[in-house]
Amino acid sequence: MRNSSSTQKNFPPPPLLNPKNIDYHQIPCEVAWELNLPLPQKFKFVYWGSHGAGNTGFGVFLAKYGGVCYYSTNNNDGKANYCYLYDLILHSKISLHQFSYLALRNFVEGENAQKFHCLIYANKAINLIRDPISTLKHHINMKRYNDKSARYFSLGADLNAIFPKLVGYTTNNGGGGKVSV
């Protein structure tokens, strides 16, 4: 069993103000971050999903039935994501009674990641996943706009000539500084 004091210091302390009794519009996102305020509660659930698992199709399905998405940024810093979502949610025209959700599909890491995730309060969540082989198949076959990579090839094709054009590595993932696509 873990020591409760070591577990508690891993999480941010509770909000310094009661979120039910404040006007979020009066508080800048940077101050809200420091006060440990959860994101404004204009969404019904959180939608977690990795790339290549059918997220776009599921998002289109939700939109067809009135779902409005608050989509997180591609920035992998927790504080930057929090501030982006905080402002997006506060300035949206979506009412509290509309069907809206928070979509988190990009990996958040670093010293602010845990705090970011702790400041998302939701009673319900959906996590869309897919097995690794199906995800790999999707990433290989998915046609991206403005992509000049080969799309049709035979089983005898030189894989070294095909895959470097389909896989990109960034510094976020531990690779080089430029994306090679």
Structure at a glance:
The chain is of the alpha/beta class and 181 residues long. The chain has helices at residues 4-8, 29-34, 55-64, 78-90, 113-118, 132-141, 159-166; strands at residues 45-49, 68-71, 100-104, 125-128.
Write the layout of secondary structure elements.
Layout: H1 4-8, H2 29-34, E1 45-49, H3 55-64, E2 68-71, H4 78-90, E3 100-104, H5 113-118, E4 125-128, H6 132-141, H7 159-166
Parallel strand pairs: 1-3, 1-4, 2-3
Can you walk me through this structure?
The chain is α/β, with parallel strands linked by helices. Helix content is 32%, strand content 10%. It has a four-stranded parallel beta sheet, sandwiched between helices. Strand 2 (68-71), helix 4 and strand 3 (100-104) form a beta-alpha-beta unit. The longest helix has 13 residues, at 78-90. The protein is elongated, with a radius of gyration of 20 Å. The termini are far apart. Mean pLDDT is 77; it is low at 1-8 and 173-181.
Give the tags:
181 residues; alpha/beta; four-stranded parallel β-sheet; 4 strands; 32% helix; elongated; disordered C terminus
Spans with pLDDT under 50 lasting ≥5 residues? 1-8, 173-181
End-to-end Cα distance: 47 Å
- Computed over alpha carbons, the radius of gyration is 20 Å
Strand content: 5-15%
Could you give a short account of the major beta sheet? 4 strands, parallel
The spatial strand order of the largest sheet comes to 2-3-1-4
Kindly state the mean pLDDT as a whole number?
77
Helix-strand string? HHEHEHEHEHH
The helix content, as a percent range, equals 25-40%
Q: Structural class of the secondary structure composition?
A: alpha/beta
Overall body shape: elongated
Number of strands: 4
Helix tally equals: 7
